[in-house]
Design a protein that fits this description.
The protein is α/β, with parallel strands linked by helices and about 300 residues long. The protein has twelve helices and twelve strands. The structure holds 2-keto-D-gluconic acid.
Amino acid sequence: MTDILMTGPYPDWDMGDLEAKYRVHKLWQAEDKDALIASHAAAIRAIATRGELGASAALMAKLPNLEIVSCYGVGTDAIDLAYARANGIRVTNTPDVLTEDVADIGIGLLLAVARKIPLADAYVRDGSWRKANMPLVTRVCGKGLGIVGMGRVGAAVARRAAAFDCAVAYFDVRKREDLPYAFVGDLVELARQSEFMIVTLAGGDSTKHIINADILAALGPDGIVINISRGSTVDETALLAALESGAIKGAGLDVFWNEPTIDERFLKLSNVVLQPHHASGTVETRKAMGQLVRDNLAAYFGGHSLLTPVV
Ligand code: 8YV
């Protein structure tokens, strides 16, 4: 049996299959993680990880016979790809299968913040409705939506927003000639034009804090920011200040800088809707993600081409 190291758990249906085929070492269960790694280091040939857990160079360096890192998630920003490349370690991820669910949550969070759906729910439950009608909220349809990052998820958000008659514009490093939406190469300008912004960028150094105080100021007091990318893309200090002062209207956040121990100031705000990094968290998508992780491992160890190679 081939030895694999898992950095965090997958759903039972994946664990069952993985444990039937591989000798699985569960890092998250080990009281002494270094001891677990040290005692199996030479045997471990694969890491099965998750998007937010990744695989650092320090971890990979402890595994001299590591050949592949298979990631349950499309984002590989927490995997040291340069280290993997330099050391001949293959890396796979799970693109495409999660795109539509993540885009759904982008639109869902926007509706939840603008239409105040969580507050409306509380309004009914706590009896406030019997005393007075709920204050009016903000329209979503027909407004200007700026999408930050026009990759797979960005394009799926744009398709949905077009069905809401939103005027869709986007920022990216280059214009997508294959798409009908307005390209705006200056992010401040996109913020100025938009009522809402949905961030769908990949994480990593090149996008760190791309949503900063200047962007939030340009978005303005009627603006709403949705983040379904990585916590790193938003300067949370600037975001919290803008939310607390009313410099923007609200935010819908699936991802945070320090997950799951998020900044407690978010919890006190009524103009945010928070999600526990769960945009891809449907049974349907998670089954497809787990299958793809397992198929990539099976392909690699069966001597076949990887299905979704990153490195
Ligand atoms: C998952 C993700 O929540 O795809 C990604 O990059 O962050 C998410 O789909 C995560 O990888 C599951 O643990």
